[in-house]
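User: I'm writing a tutorial on reading structure tokens. Could you give me a worked example: one chain, its sequence, then its tokens, then a sentence or two explaining what the tokens reveal?
Assistant: Sure. Here is the example chain.
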Amino acid sequence: MRRLRAFGVFWWDFVIGDDWLIAAAVVVGLAATAALTHLAGVNAWWLLPVLVVGLIPVSIRRLRRD
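And here are its predicted structure tokens:
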């Protein structure tokens, strides 16, 4: 059981890291990309890189505030 918990803690720390807001925004971006691609038929490969580049200043601002 201890190994299973350690495995879960590792993945939580790897995915969420220090900023849960950025991780949530990336999940929303993935969902929006999938929705645009599959439901609207839009070639939306560009959405996630634009989102990530836009989130970099947000992450730095939140880091500097702490």
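What the tokens reveal: Residues 20-38 form the longest helix (19 residues). The CA atoms of residues 42 and 51 lie 17 Å apart.
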